[in-house]
Amino acid sequence: MSESLRFERPPVQEVTLAFMLQPMGRLQTLDLAPLRVEWRADYPQLQEVAPLSPWNPSDRDSVEFVRSGLSWPMGLCSFSTESGDRKIRFQQDRFLLSWSFGEGVQEYPGFQVLKSELLGKFAQFSKLVHEATDAYPSVKRVDVQYVNLLPDISAHDCMAGILNGWSSPSTFPFRKPDYSGFRVHYQESELDANVAVLVGVDSVVGESPSGDFVDSATISLDAEAVVGEGHEYPATLDSAHDVLTSAFLEVTSEEMRAQWGEIS
Length: 264
What we know:
Layout lengths: L5 E2 L4 E10 L12 H5 L6 E5 L7 H4 L15 E5 L5 E6 L2 E7 L10 H23 L5 E12 L4 H9 L17 E6 L8 E13 L5 E14 L6 H19 L2 H6 L2 E2 L1
Antiparallel strand pairs: 1-11, 2-6, 2-7, 3-4, 4-5, 5-6, 7-10, 8-9, 9-10
């Protein structure tokens, strides 16, 4: 299903594809210094900040003090384009690729293009990790996240539409709120029991062509899957994307998809 859903004008605002790794305690930023040279042409902006919290709940309870003589924990390294529309981030327990789309930025090229970029950059990362630690990164979980912009549709009306299957009329039954948020999480999707999916709707203030502020909304979808024993993580990434695509069909209407130029 990964390539079966296409639009002439996709509403995609941001996509993040991520590999969650077995923590690599021996890995240090200097081990990956060659990436600064290899990626400079496409990703010239470099930043290193404090690492993100461990993705694995069992690792979050462990506290280790850095004593004299021990290596400092590796930070979160971020490589980005001049415009900031593409980013590659990594630390000892994850590797992420993010692309942003919209006004003044490139159009969404499709999942396979992003997946190819992710796998290519991760292969370069893995080679250096192996040279430094004598082991390759072990992918334990994959994540696929999409943020879709719905201009001129308020978050509360979007929430009402999703809850009643976009039957007419799909309007919020109470007075207009200042902000609306909506979350639905499925631990096991119907399409693949190995994939969990989160659907979120949030308010966002947009601007019309005339310059007036209008209520708009974002629909966020996040699919994550554990990479099972003997399974290949690229195939698991495909499965997570298939579940996300199915969820997107469930929370949008035929009228919306027609406006976006759905290609059958």
